[in-house]
Every structure is written in C-alpha cells, then in structure tokens.
C-alpha cells in the first residue's frame, strides 16, 4: 500500500513539473491577450526569438537599438511557458507590465496581421460578405488584429477599422516573418519644403522640394545626410530635418478611392482601373501592369485600355495633351515631376490631392499625395 502511495506521489510531482503545451490561440486568463505570447517553445531562447522580433533583429538587438523591451526582458529571462507560469513567482501584474512594454516591439503592433492577397483585401463594416466596404488593405499591408471569431478578423489599419476574412490574413509568427521582408525604412519630413539634393552637401543642386509630413524611402544613413529614393532616383536630404523609422504599409480608406461630383464616367473608370494594380512590382523599362512596369509604362498601358496612345517615356508624354495648372487637375489628368529642370517621373491624378504611380522597386505601384515632391507640370489627355 505504501509502495502504491509513493508511486502516486512521484507521478504527481513529475506531472506538476512538466511544462504543458499551450497554443497561442488558447487564452491565458487575466494575463495576456491572445497571440501576444506563444507558449509552446522548447526553451526560453525559442520563446525570446519569437516573442521579440523587431525589424529584422533579434529581441536583444531590437531592445538595444530601439529601447523596446520584450516580455522576456521584463520577466528577467525566466522561461515563458504554461509550466513556468504554474511555478513562477511572477504576478499577473508582472505579466501585464511585460505586455505593455513589449507590445510595440512589432513595428508598433501588438497582434500583427499582414494582408495575404494578390491585390487588395476588402475591409467591411460588419463581419459579413455583404457588409458595407469601409476600406481596402493592399497586398502585404499591415493591421492590428483586435479580435477574431475563426472566420472574420476585426482589424484596425491606419485610419480604417472593420472586418476582413481571416482566410486572407497572416497572423502570429508567419506575419512577423513576412513583416521582416516588408518593413521599409522611411524618413518622415519634419520641416516645410525640405530640399532634396543630388549629392550629400549644401552646394549640390536642389532637385525638388518635399512637403512636411511626407515619407521618403531610406536607402542609407550617411552621417549628417540621409540617402533616400525619390521614386527610382537616389538623392539626399539633411538628417536634421527628418525622422527615420521602420514602417509597414496600411489600409486605404474609401474616401481615398472615391471622387467628387462632376467627374466623367471615363475618368472614374480609368482611375479605378489604375488602382487595381496597386502593390504590383516596379520594373525599370517594364510595361506589364501585373509583372512589372516603370512610371511611364504604367501610364501608357492604363491609357491604352481607353483607346489613348501615349509615347513610351515621361518626357515625351509631357508634350501630349494640354498643359494645365496642377490646381486644376481632375482625376485622370497626368502629373509630372522633375529632377532639376528635367522631367523624370509621371503619375495619374486620382482626386482628393492624390496620385497613383509606379514609384520604385521597393514600393511598386502605390498611392501618394500629389505634393509628395514638387510637381513639375500637369497635362490633360482626356477631354470631356
């Protein structure tokens, strides 16, 4: 009898000290939201690597560079697993603090989601196929996953909040890995009319001016200067007047996709058609709307669908149609940009102060503010 009791006690002790495997989708009551910690790692190191990925760095590197703490850092590198929770001296408050400090480790997202679609993911007002559209999440754009029911995800991205099909959304570790590939380092302009120069010195030619609040893709930081991509050109801005950070793309609101009254059907249709290719790749010299195109190839192919034949390069396109003031542009008009006094980029105006264009190899076809750089001229091709 004593032998049986001893075996029972030993077995119970072994079971009590064996970490249980708990999936991230199973909530830990009163501790952390779903998906914040993945509690099925074989070692503390595994948990740290997955819970603390920051912009391509490990948790330790991210904390050192950005000042962000991972859950593992806050908990003094104790094992993070359900077995550890059972025997840990950490309180619920400790875990809540860990959560608060670590929640911005994933590019500012607590529960990161990435649109896993070929074009755009519809965002609806309610969790139903016939729900009113409130925005679109472009391919590879990011969102905060607020909640899920197994079929729909309640998300927030940029200024858009609504519901998307969970089937087309990467979450958890796959989303983090995808974000590692997608995160773009940008320089946000903090001054009015930032001068963009050809070389990294104040004597260099001023190519264009960029408005406050605009974001430029960073190629490299070189001391007091930041090398940025102005569409497909490498140029320089003073590091003093920009803030550099890693960013992921976000949702587009419906207001950014709609037009005001008085715009002809062909203009609306042309702009809608052009925006179908947002997120597709930029390829210098290319003319394919799906496999890759440059700025002028994009414009040429879009207008070709509507029976308008345009030259192949942006400088020649600028000599077509009628020159108008940028302030007079309607959706479907062309906006040209220059490097100094030479036109080197073209975009399609889509209304609401925005253009769609094939920008750079990193960003592909995208929407920008019309003043993301100083417009050189505007041209009207469509007459109505």
Structure description:
β4 and β5 (about 150-155) form a beta hairpin. The termini are far apart. This protein has helices spanning about 1-15, 45-50, 60-65, 70-75, 80-85, 90-100, 170-180, 265-275, 295-305, 315, and strands at about 110-115, 120-125, 135-140, 140-150, 150-155, 160-165, 170, 185-190, 195, 205-210, 215-220, 225-230, 235-240, 240-245, 250-255, 285-290, 290-295, 320-325, 335-340, 340-350, 355-360, 365-370, 375-380. It has a six-stranded antiparallel beta sheet. It has a five-stranded antiparallel beta sheet with strand order 6-5-4-1-7, covered by helices on one side. The protein is of the alpha+beta class and about 375 residues long. The protein has four domains: about 1-100, no CATH class; about 110-180, SH3 type barrels (Roll); about 185-245, SH3 Domains (SH3 type barrels, Roll); about 250-380, endopeptidase domain like (from Nostoc punctiforme) (endopeptidase fold (from Nostoc punctiforme), Alpha-Beta Complex), CATH 3.90.1720.
- With strands numbered from the N-terminus, the spatial order across the biggest sheet is 18-23-19-20-21-22
Number of domains: 4
State the helix count.
10
Distance from N terminus to C terminus (CA atoms, Å) equals: 98 Å
Shape type:
globular
| Helix content bin | 10-25%
Summed over residues and divided by their number, the pLDDT gives a mean of 77
Report strand %. Answer: 25-35%
Low-confidence stretches: 15-88, 259-263
Structural category is: alpha+beta
What is the CA-atom radius of gyration, in angstroms? 26 Å
Which CATH-level-2 architecture of the largest domain? Alpha-Beta Complex
Q: How is the CATH topology of the largest domain named?
A: endopeptidase fold (from Nostoc punctiforme)
Number of E strands: 23
Largest sheet: 6 strands, antiparallel
CATH homologous superfamily heading of the largest domain: endopeptidase domain like (from Nostoc punctiforme)
CATH class of the largest domain: Alpha Beta
């Amino acid at each position: 009898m004593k032998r049986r009791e001893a075996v029972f006690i030993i077995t119970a002790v072994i079971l009590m000290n064996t970490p249980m495997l708990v999936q991230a989708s199973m909530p830990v009551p009163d501790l952390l939201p779903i998906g914040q910690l993945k509690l099925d790692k074989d070692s503390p190191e595994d948990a740290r690597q997955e819970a603390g990925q920051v912009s391509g760095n490990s948790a330790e590197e991210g904390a050192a560079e950005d000042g962000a703490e991972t859950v593992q850092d806050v908990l003094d590198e104790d094992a993070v697993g359900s077995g550890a929770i059972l025997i840990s001296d950490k309180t619920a408050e400790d875990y809540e603090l860990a959560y608060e400090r670590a929640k911005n480790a994933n590019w500012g997202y607590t529960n990161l989601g990435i649109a896993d679609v070929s074009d755009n993911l519809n965002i609806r007002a309610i969790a139903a196929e016939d729900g009113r559209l409130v925005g679109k999440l472009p391919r590879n754009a990011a969102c905060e996953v607020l909640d899920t029911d197994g079929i729909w995800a309640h998300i927030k991205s940029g200024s858009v909040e609504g519901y998307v099909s969970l089937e087309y959304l990467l979450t958890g570790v796959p989303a983090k890995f995808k974000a590692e590939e997608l995160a773009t380092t940008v320089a946000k302009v903090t001054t009015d009319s930032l001068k963009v120069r050809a070389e990294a010195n104040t004597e260099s030619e001023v190519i264009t001016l960029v408005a406050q609040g605009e974001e430029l893709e960073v190629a490299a930081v070189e001391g007091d200067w930041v090398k940025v991509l102005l569409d497909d050109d490498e140029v320089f801005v003073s590091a003093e007047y920009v803030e550099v950070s890693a960013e992921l793309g976000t949702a587009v609101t419906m207001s950014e996709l709609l037009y005001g009254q008085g715009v002809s059907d062909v203009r609306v249709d042309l702009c809608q058609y052009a925006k179908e290719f947002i997120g597709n790749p930029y390829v210098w010299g290319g003319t394919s709307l799906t496999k890759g195109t440059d700025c002028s190839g994009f414009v040429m192919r879009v207008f070709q669908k509507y029976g308008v034949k345009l030259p192949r390069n942006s400088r020649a396109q600028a000599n077509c149609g009628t020159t108008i003031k940028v302030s007079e542009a309607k959706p479907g008009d062309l906006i040209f940009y220059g490097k100094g006094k030479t036109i080197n980029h073209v975009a399609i105006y889509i209304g609401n102060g925005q253009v769609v264009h094939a920008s750079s190899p990193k960003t592909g076809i995208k929407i920008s503010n019309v003043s993301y750089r100083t417009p050189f001229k505007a041209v009207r091709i469509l007459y109505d």
